[in-house]
C-alpha cells in the first residue's frame, strides 16, 4: 500500500508554522519530506492567500498564522484556521512527554474574529 496522509502539504506546513513560527524553510522541508523549493512555494501560497504573514527578524523570517480566517472549504458550519490548528497542535502536545528545556516555544496562533 502506498504512503498517504489525511492532510495536504499546505495543511502540514501550516501546522508546522503554528508549532514553530521561526521555523526555517530547510527544516520545514526536512520535517515534511519535501524539497526546500516546495516548502518555499507552499509558504508563498499561504502568504498570498492571507493565512500566513511573513515578518523579517534579522536575517531570518518569522511567520504568523492568521487564525481568524475561515478554512477555504466550507464543510458544515464555518470553522476558522485557529480552531482547527488549536485541536491539532494541542492534541500533539498532549501526546508528547514534556521535556524540560531552557527555552520553551508557544505557537503564535492569533485568534479573534474580525467581522
Task: Summarize the model shown.
The chain has helices at 9-19, 25-32, 36-48, 81-95, and strands spanning 52-57, 60-66, 109-110.
Describe this structure in words.
The protein has 115 residues and is of the alpha+beta class. The chain has one domain: Winged helix-like DNA-binding domain superfamily/Winged helix DNA-binding domain (Arc Repressor Mutant, subunit A). The protein has four helices and three strands. It has a three-stranded mixed sheet with strand order 1-2-3. A hairpin with a 2-residue loop joins β1 and β2. α1 packs across α3 and α2 packs across α3. The chain is globular. About 9% of the residues have low confidence.
CATH class: Mainly Alpha
Helix content: 40-55%
CATH superfamily: Winged helix-like DNA-binding domain superfamily/Winged helix DNA-binding domain
CATH structural architecture: Orthogonal Bundle
Individual helix count: 4
The helix-strand sequence is HHHEEHE
Structural class: alpha+beta
Rounded radius of gyration (Å): 15 Å
The biggest beta sheet reads: 3 strands, mixed
N-to-C span: 45 Å
Amino acid at each position: 500500500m502506498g504512503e498517504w496522509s489525511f492532510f495536504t502539504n499546505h495543511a502540514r506546513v501550516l501546522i508546522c508554522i503554528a508549532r514553530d513560527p521561526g521555523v526555517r524553510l530547510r527544516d520545514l522541508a526536512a520535517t515534511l519530506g519535501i524539497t526546500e523549493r516546495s516548502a518555499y512555494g507552499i509558504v508563498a501560497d499561504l502568504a498570498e492567500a492571507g493565512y500566513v504573514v511573513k515578518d523579517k527578524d534579522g536575517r531570518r523570517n518569522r511567520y504568523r498564522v492568521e487564525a481568524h480566517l475561515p478554512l477555504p472549504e466550507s464543510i458544515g458550519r464555518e470553522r476558522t484556521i485557529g480552531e482547527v490548528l488549536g485541536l491539532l497542535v494541542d492534541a500533539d502536545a498532549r501526546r508528547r512527554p514534556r521535556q524540560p528545556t531552557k527555552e520553551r516555544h508557544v505557537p503564535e496562533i492569533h485568534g479573534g474574529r474580525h467581522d
